[in-house]
Amino acid sequence: MRLDxxxxxxSFDDGTLPIVRMRNEAETVKFCQRTHDELEIxxxxxxxxxxxVFWNTLCVSSQIxxxxxxxxxxxxxxxxxxxxxVDEIIGQVAAANAAFEAQVRNVVFMGMGEPLDNYExxxxxxxxxxxxxxxxxxxxxxxxxxxxxxxxxxxxxxLNYRRLGLAISLNAPNDEIRDQIMPINRxxxxxxxxxxxxxxxxxxxxxxxxxxxxxxxxxDTLEHARELAAYLKGLPTCVNLIPxxxxxxxxxxxxxxxxxxxxxxxxxxxxxxxxxxxxxxxxAMGACGQLGNLAxxxxxxx
Length: 302
Fold this sequence. Notes:
Blueprint: E1 19-25, E2 28-34, E3 40-50, E4 53-59, E5 63-65, E6 80-83, H1 86-100, E7 104-109, H2 119-131, E8 142-146, H3 150-158, E9 165-169, H4 175-181, H5 190-199, E10 208-214, H6 222-232, E11 237-243, H7 257-269, E12 274-276
Parallel strand pairs: 4-7, 7-8, 8-9, 9-10, 10-11, 11-12
Antiparallel strand pairs: 1-2, 2-3, 3-4, 5-6
């Protein structure tokens, strides 16, 4: 079984996988690389900075598809097709640097897949990105995002990489809501996740990023904000509020700006450091939760 694949837009002489598609929005670029088994890897170059200081962050994928089934995520609809190899992971950075002259400064494992389900390859990739002279990306400029893989968080903590960033896709203030939107919570409830977060080594003055996708009528009330603040109290965390990015076939809705701002003010009034993510790449289907080609789903059992 074959997909109708586009010819490469960019090819490389060093073995880096070719880029076959790109979509741009306001300097944010989502690009797709074709794998040797006719699958696709999606990555996003995100321009960052201001006041005369600019850099590029690359959102990389660790898997093709994802097994975790979060109800608000396009990638979850694909199911898990396979893990990416080390070469395929670092090849996303090499492609961004070569094709777009991006000079990637920050790498975030926030693309397709659950990074800690591909633990060994992700950790080896981090080491290469850190030590290889082609990249030389400081660990403090690399962040691993997880849906709450508690065993994986503990394994990552055991490496004692105090400067490696950790992001937790929490998205709920209590077990009842998290059970509904994130199946992993039924196996690893929030109390266990809190213990795993507390075990993670954080440098002095640092914090763990708590990603909170805001879903209208699901997790966006003042009471939810108060529950969230209570859950995180005493942990070195910063909450990142993410307005839900629409995906075809998913029924969630994005809260109003007023609702999100009110939620943020309530968290901050309770002493919880909080900021709102300004959406980039939504029109190019490159924003949080939008990655994934559903046409590949039929290859899952090939």
